[in-house]
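Margin note: ligand = iron/sulfur cluster.
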Amino acid sequence: MLSTGSNLPDSVSDKLPPKPEIGLPLWLLAELTYRCPLQCPYCSNPLDFAEQGKELSTEQWIKVFREAREMGAAQLGFSGGEPLVRQDLAELIAEARKLGFYTNLITSGIGLTEQKISDFKKAGLDHIQISFQASDEQVNNLLAGSKKPSRKNSKWPAR
Ligand code: SF4
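Resulting structure:
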């Protein structure tokens, strides 16, 4: 029998199915930068990002995308930090789409202008995921350490 690695009694763990084999990665989560305009207290990114060395260049990221695609990855998430601070984001999206990835932007929405949305759409972006810390604006701002755009003052359509 394969070990489940759990502390369950044998009578229980014997009935569990064996752990599936770990396959190749299907999703590449590209943390493009540590930079972020928010200051969430639970953030796991280093705050001294200026000391963390240079971020990967556009060409280096495209090389990573190509290698991940060759390994079988099908979906690419652009994350951070805040990925919108990368000036080459539309170029990275376009390259990822050329390689055949399903592309997903994971963002706080800060800095997301209509122009950028249009540029990303032209580049072939498939999906935007906007994160909120809370549905209540005050709690949201308290958690994020910054004022985020609310529906009241944004141009985003109401659902
Ligand atoms: S939005 Fe994300 S990256 Fe930015 S401070 Fe909050 S947890 Fe960290």
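The radius of gyration is 20 Å.
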